Structure formats: structure tokens, C-alpha cells
Amino acid sequence: MATESSITPREKDFPVWYQDVIAAAQLAEHSPVKGSMIIKPEGYALWEMIQADLDARIKATGHRNAYFPMLIPESFLNKEKQHVEGFAPELAVVTHAGGEKLDEPLVVRPTSETMIHDAFSRWIQSYRDLPLLINQWANVVRWELRPRMFLRTTEFLWQEGHTAHATEEDMQAEVEKMLGVYKELAQDVLAIPVYDCEKSESERFAGAKRTLTIEAMMQDGKALQMGTSHNLGQGFSEAFNVMFTDKDGQRKYAWLASWGVSTRVIGGLIMTHSDDKGLVLPPRIAPVQVVIVPIGKTEDEQQAVKKAIDELMLALGTDVRTHLDDRDYQTMGQKCNEWEQKGIPLRIELGPRDLALSQLVVARRDTGDKETVKLSVADKRIKQLLEEMQVDLLKNATTRLEEGTVTVSDYEALKTQVQTGFARSFWCGMAECETQVKAETKATIRCLPFERKLSGSGSCIVCEMAAAKEVLWARSY
Amino acid sequence: MATESSITPREKDFPVWYQDVIAAAQLAEHSPVKGSMIIKPEGYALWEMIQADLDARIKATGHRNAYFPMLIPESFLNKEKQHVEGFAPELAVVTHAGGEKLDEPLVVRPTSETMIHDAFSRWIQSYRDLPLLINQWANVVRWELRPRMFLRTTEFLWQEGHTAHATEEDMQAEVEKMLGVYKELAQDVLAIPVYDCEKSESERFAGAKRTLTIEAMMQDGKALQMGTSHNLGQGFSEAFNVMFTDKDGQRKYAWLASWGVSTRVIGGLIMTHSDDKGLVLPPRIAPVQVVIVPIGKTEDEQQAVKKAIDELMLALGTDVRTHLDDRDYQTMGQKCNEWEQKGIPLRIELGPRDLALSQLVVARRDTGDKETVKLSVADKRIKQLLEEMQVDLLKNATTRLEEGTVTVSDYEALKTQVQTGFARSFWCGMAECETQVKAETKATIRCLPFERKLSGSGSCIVCEMAAAKEVLWARSY
Questions:
Q1: Which residue numbers in chain B have pLDDT < 50?
Q2: I need a surface site. Which of A350, B38, B189, B332 has the fewest CB within 10 A?
Q3: Which of residues 37-76 of A touch B (CB under 8 A)?
């Protein structure tokens, strides 16, 4: 196991710090297959927490889960021109199976629009079948040349929502509603503040008419796209013949949407809250919220401490996810170090001296603050501290996002600002200006913030032409 | 949607009846990729129920979930000789990715022993790391020439447990414990009685020293293997160098086990309980346990009925999974037919005439019995009926299993018995005799029931040599 000293400080090398935190918290490791990672139990428990929360939100908004084949006929991808152009370079292809060469190669799904829209063409007959609201939890494969754990891996886990609607308005409402669900997950659960906004044309999903996104700021000032929601228009409907008979008796193409969130959000969680000691987890998503470390040398001491801990755990009940670390072959120091690296929000220490004073000690992972709490009120105080920590993590990240987002009015200021944060400026809307910024600064347009009204007139930060669009620029993962 | 009349009776054609039930209940459908099925929302909800129950049991027995890459280097499979011989004919192979031919082909996992044992070789250092108890929920691919929905599909969903132990005894205890967990799932939740027993050598998992199995009897008398648990000995440890330093300071190979249950159990659920009207679901696993169909023509009637239903649903609370079918474009007959085909355990009808008498009508899916229940006790009676139905389904299936298992003492009787059920007989232990029975009757040794003691002496049902093993023969899925 990695020790505390093995975590490289953020200041020294942020990408190495990121890898070190993952290793020390035992979240994941590289596998023998290039670009693929093994999600270890600590990391998978985190994904299960995210899944449970998001799945409940997806179902509460009327969607149903289903499962579609992972292997897709190559010809399916070719049916939507932009879609195949976007994904062709990333495909893994099965050419042989059952000991024989296949007549038609099968691609491992990079996303399931094609397979699911083909099914929609059979499932949808009339306007009564709409909206059709489907979600799938699955693995997907996109060949990665520069893999990075959780952020970009050849195989990753995600949910992909696919819906069909009778009207463009209904479809657009769905696209916005699901982005709202993602924003709730990010802010209320993961304590990650985000901009919810629209992608520029060059950053859209392959085949989409519009792509909405939530964008978060990591501690190094780079952006991370945390989830996207796509207006697919009628392009896929036409390619896969997804039609319905409307109330007026006419046959019409359905309006389609899709939206997805992946294991990548775990990377965002790490880079938003963690510090040079290791992982920091927001209490709401922590698989273990409180670790209890008993202290005691003699058997009598151990029994008395155990009794107090049993009472505390009973008082906390199922409201709080606790873990008792009663291993006898690890020192107190080793245990504290391990739970710090694993990001457990609260660590409780309880020994004979505390017991004599009817108290225990609680250490908060994020601030490092230790406080003494009377046993009689410990359960209440623990729940309170978990709430406070959740609120503080979001507050700190929000301050960073706000302070790290600066409005710039000349090109030099833009260049400087995207080294450490997000720059807001006017943009003429031309792809050439976008491309120039990317080439010279590595920053891209993260999005066109749609909740902000244009304030006064402006000129493009690059070409200085009159500009009607205010955009966010940043380097990104 | 299929109508009732479209379900072929079991007597007429059992395999076609099976397909008809799946179609009418909207559980799954064929996909454009041969051998792969689409699990539709009704079918996937069933899998989610099974997953939730089994996952809780797996965690309660100390296992933790993780996730390993789906693409496995071909060379990994070649490391364990029997394993690769067993799986080679079924592999799907990725030869190209990212636009290039791969240096080494990657196989889509048919099972994950090789990838996981490779990880175990890094994760296990000392006896303190043992037992290592890991489980994975995943999709796997085994190329199928004769696919059948849920029972044999090219891609299927499952959980695969993989564990490492310091001693052979610990490993064997794990193998038996997890078979016990599977038996509980089958009997207590799915209401499917099973024989828990051991496979003969010819039917073992490729690479296993022993394979335990739970075997159920379908309504046509055929056997279905519902779950298996394998003693892998030290073969994979040697192939993947899974070693640990024991308490005595010696480096030793770990003892490995694996066990799995797949979407195939849904096929078993269908073929155990369903009837000529469609699916029948045991209440404990039914995603919807009670469907409520209101009756009423005038708006006043509808409002009064709605009020009574709201009160009932409040009284049932979260203990009972209910669905209100208030669609206005379907007749009562269409609705009843649909819910019958979908196997909802209880259907409640409530109209103005019932309301005047302060009662409602409950129809039980399995027996077809209808009873009138006073509104004041309806919530209690509904819960009782759900329990009763669960018990009755298991009782009926147990009677079928017991009556359908006959001890035979001559070869002709064996041949006859396996046409309609299971035959129990003595067997000499020679593969030749097993092969002869298979060739002549299509029946195989399902297992050697390990809970039964040999009663007296016996002779092999085939060669009539003195025999020490009592076995179960059956045709199987």
C-alpha cells in the first residue's frame, strides 16, 4: 500500500498527484490491456453510490432501464453520416467469433444510439407510445491513445439515456430536464459546482443538433465535462426510420434525445476536493462516512471501549455509514494515514481516557479539525458535522469556480487567464477564431452559458468583429 | 402487442409457448445481431430485482464488488490449458481497434478468471490479504450456435464471484457457502426448488477441480442449471502466480474459487411458474406486485373511486409495489389481458358498485381465484395473499420436482423417465456409460446429489457393474 509520503504535492505535479491519490486510496489501477483500468473495490463502491443516486433520479423522471447488445453491426454506424465520422477512429472491432471470420464485422458499442434507435423503429407505432423514455447502464469502448484513469479510458462504465418524442418542444424540454438532473447530482451530491451551458458546434456530440453540458473547474483551473445531454433532432429518426402516427393520422419522424454520465465523474470528484494527504470524499457520496478507531491495551479497556462504540453505532443506526477498524496488527498512525488517504469524511478515536471523561474525539478529513464531543450527544454532532462538511466542500469549490472565472477583453488577457482558470469573453461565432485560440493556448470553448444574458455589446476576443455570443474558454481534460 | 390468443399452449409446443410468453410479457426480443437479445424494460426490471436481492446476499457474506476490463489478451486465456480448451470455440475476438490491427488480439471475456487472477497476483502478498472476496456484475460473450432467449444468448449479464483462500478447506467452504446463497435465491425468492449437488467430470467448468450446481426442473421435465460454484484448486494460481506468504513464512499458492448466476435464471422463472395465459411472477420478485384497475364512467364515479384507491395505496405504503392503471383508451378486458400476460401477482378491480358496498375485488394471477374484500381490511388481506401466493408457487413446483424425480433400476425405465422428468439411478463412474446415455436419450448426468447417502448397494444403470454413485439424469436446457 502507498504511504502518505508517496503522494506528490499538487503544486509540484498535478497529474502525478492525481495518479498518486488514486493509488493511495486504492480506487483503481492500470490493467494489462492498454487504456483499460481495473476499478478496485474502493473505487467501485463510489460508482455504486453514484449509480444508486442517479438511477433513482432517472426513474423519478419517468425513465425505465433496459439492456441492448454490446456488439453492433458495422453497417448500423454507417447509417448516420456525422455519427460514424465522429466515432470511426475510436472503434474496437470484432472480426472473428466462434472460430470463424464474421461475414460482417461487429463494433463494440462506443455509444448505443444506432442499436437503440433501430429498436425504437419497432417499438414506436403511435403518438401513444411517446414519449419513450429509456435508460441503459452499460460498458462502452472508445479506443484511447492518451488514457488517464477515470477521465479517459478505453473501456468505461456509464448510463446512456435515449428518448423519443412527438414534438421538437417535448424533446428540447427533455434535453434540458436531464441536464438539470445532472446538475443536481453534481452540486447536491458530489459537491461540485458546474456551469450548465451549450457546446459550440465543433464540440458537439457526433450527430447532435445541439449538445448541452455541465462543466466543472478542477483545482488546477482546467475544465472537466461532467455530463452531456443531446438534442438529436430528426437525423437518427430518418436514418433508422423511427416514425409514429400522430393524432392527426399523419406518419411523422420522432424527435430524439440522448444523455450520458460516466465513471469520469469520479475523476472530477477526486480533482475537486482532494488534497496533498489524499482523497477527500463529500459525505453524501462516501461509501463509508465515519470510521471508528478504538484505542485500548488491556482486555478490560478494549471491552469498555467496545461497549461505548456499540452504543454509538446503535444510536447512529442506518442513517450513517460507519466502519469499525479494530485490526490489531496496525498502529494508530498507520490506521489514521490509511483513512485519510481513503478520504473518509470523519474519523472517531475513542480510548480509555476519553471514556473516563465520557467523550470521544472526531477528526474532520477536509479541515483536519479535531473536536472533543460528549458521548451523550455524539450521534447528533456526527450527523451535524457530516452536513457541515458537505456544505463547506461545495462552498469552497464554488468560491474557486467563481474566483477562477474572469471576464477578459483582450487576447493577451485570455491567454494568461486560461493558464489558471476559465476566461469569459465575447466570440464572433466563427470556427476559425475558436481554432486559433486552441492552437495558441490549448483552450477550447467549453460552452456558451445559456443562463447569462448578453450584457451590452461586445467584440470577438480574437478577430474583434462585433460579437453576439458570450462564451467560456478553458483548457480541459 | 401480442394478444392472449397468440400464446401457444404448453401441451402443443413448449418451446414456442416459451417464446410467446416472453413476447406477450414484453420481457425481451431478438436483436439484429444473431444470438444477442434486447432485454426490454419489463424484463430488465426483473433482472434489477434479482440483482438487488443477490447483491445484498453477496455483500452480507463479506464480498466486495469491483470491475475488470472486458477485453482480455488472448495470451491470458492460453495460460490455463483446460480453461482455453473449454472456451476457445466460443470466443469473440477483437482484432482491430483505433483504426489499426492490434499486435495481440483481445478476446471479449467469456468469464473473467484469467483477468482477475492476474490482478490477484498483485493484490495478494500475505495471509492477511486472505480470504480475498471479490464479485463483479458484468456482461460476457460466448458465441452461441443455437441461441434461445435468456437460456443461451451470445451476450448475457451475470455476476461472477472470484475468491482466494489460504487453505483448501477455506476455499471448499466458500464454494459450498455460495451454492447455499444461490439455493436461497432460487427457493426463497424465485420460488424455484432445486437440487444442490455436484457435476460429473464431463460437465465441470473448464479448469475446475469440482463444480457444484443447483438444478431445477422445468414444466416440461427438462433440467435447468440455475447457478454454479467452482473449486478451482491451485491450477489458476500456478498459471497466474497467485502466491502469498503464510504465517509460517513460506510462499504458497492460493486456493481459488469462482461462482456465477446469470440472466438465465429469468428463463427458469418463466418455465417454472407461467401458464397458457402468459407469465406468472412470484410476488417477492415481481417488480409490480399489485395492479389496480379503477372502474367508473361518470366523473363523479371516477373521483370517488380514485379517492378510495388513494387511501388503499397509502395504507399499502412502500411495503407493496403497486401500479395504478388509469389509462382511458383501453377497455377493462384489454387491461386484464395485459396484466395477466405480464404476470402481475394480484389485480384489484374497484368500481362504483364495489364502493357502495365498501369492498373491492382481488384476482390472483396463479389460481385465477377472485375474492371480494372489505376496504377496511384490504391492505392486510393483500399482503396476506401475496405471501400465500409465494408459498403456493414454491409448493406446487416442489411437488412437481418430487413427483417428476423417479428412481429407476433398469435402462429401459431410464429412457422412458427422462422423456418427462428426472431419473435417479446408480452409475459406475465411467464416462463411457454417461456418453452412451446421452447419445441414446439426450439425457446427461445433471449431478451427483451430495446430500443423499447411498442406500444399499447398487449396479450401474448402463453397464450393470457394481456402482457407488447415485446420480440424477435428465435432458436439459
A1: 1-4
A2: B332
A3: 37-41, 43-45, 47-48, 64-73, 76
- B138 is written with which cell numbers? 458484468
- The residue written with cell numbers 430524439 in the block is A256
What is the rounded CA–CA span in Å between residue B14 and residue B151?
14
Measured in degrees and rounded to the nearest 5, phi and psi for residue A74 equal -55, -35
What's the pLDDT at A5?
55
- Nearest-angstrom CA–CA distance, A15 and A271: 10
Residue spans of the domains in chain A: they are: 4-273, 290-386, 405-474
CATH architecture of B290-385: 3-Layer(aba) Sandwich (3.40)
pLDDT in tens, A203-242: 899 999 999 999 999 999 999 999 999 999 999 999 999 9
What CATH topology corresponds to A4-273? BirA Bifunctional Protein; domain 2 (3.30.930)
List of long-range contacts for A300-304, beta carbons under 8 Å, 24+ apart: A301/A351, A301/A352, A304/A352, A304/A355
Q: Judge whether residue A172 has pLDDT over 90.
A: yes
User: Which amino acid, A273?
Assistant: H
Q: For A290-386, which CATH class?
A: alpha beta
What would the grid cell of residue B140 be? 460476457
B375 Cβ under 8 Å from any chain A Cβ: no
Q: How far apart are CA B73 and CA B81, in angstroms?
A: 15
Going by C-alpha positions, the residue among B420, B419, B429 that lies closest to residue B466 is B429
Residue with cell 492460453: B78
Place of cell 446429489: B449
CA distance B344 to chain A (A): 18
- Identify the helix (H) or strand (E) that includes residue B240: helix B235-240
Measured between beta carbons, the chain A residues lying within 8 angstroms of B138 are 139
CATH number for the domain running over B405-474: 3.30.110.30
- C-alpha grid cell for residue B442? 439426450
